[in-house]
Amino acid sequence: MSNKPNLMTLLIAAMMANAAKVAQDEDAPLPDLDAILSGARQKGTPIFNAKLDPDMAAAAQRMDAEVAAFRSAQKRPTAPEILRKGADTYEERNSLYGDSYKVYGAVMKAMFPDGLPDFATVADFNRLGVFSMIVSKIMRYASNIGNGGHFDSALDLSVYAAMLAELTEEEGK
Fold it and tell me: What are the sequence ranges of the domains in the chain?
């Protein structure tokens, strides 16, 4: 018996993946069944000791189309549902970070007591935008420093720092 999965195994796995994606996230991309089948065909993957049947590939494509049709018929969220989800996200983040957005101005004023420099270029505003995100991430991390910090904020901070370094390098400074 071959260790290679047969076509039926591939099809069942793809169907299960499609069903799981539809159940979890209606906007998730579907696995490309045609690519799975084409790959199996090119490798000569056996199905009942025979070469890949083109009718099976067509059936898989029809199944994929049916799943896509099912997905498009699903109810899309309404504005009130989206707002409720936003409120839930706000409450979750606020419990983690507190009202850091309410002290952002004080932090920036402390860093720039004479106000911001006179920005003249798009590059200046790009650096300010990324710098602003860094300040925000530092504030979020600081609100959790007594609890061991917050990994996502630290990781985000490293990304924004790299972005700022790139923008600074582009300016030749």
Answer: 7-73, 87-170
CA distance 44 to 21: 28
> For residues 86 and 64, what is the distance between their CA atoms, to the nearest angstrom?
32
Confidence band for 114, pLDDT divided at 50, 70 and 90: very high
Alpha-carbon distance of 100 to 94, in angstroms, equals: 8
Q: What's the predicted TM-score (pTM) here? A: 0.54
Alpha-carbon gap, residue 104 to 138, rounded angstroms: 11
Q: Exposed e or buried b for every residue in 108-146, given b needs 16+ CB within 10 A?
A: eeeeeeeeeeeeeeeeeebbeebbebbbbbbbbbbbbee
**Chain segment 33-70, per-residue pLDDT in tens:** 556 555 555 555 443 334 445 666 667 677 777 777 77
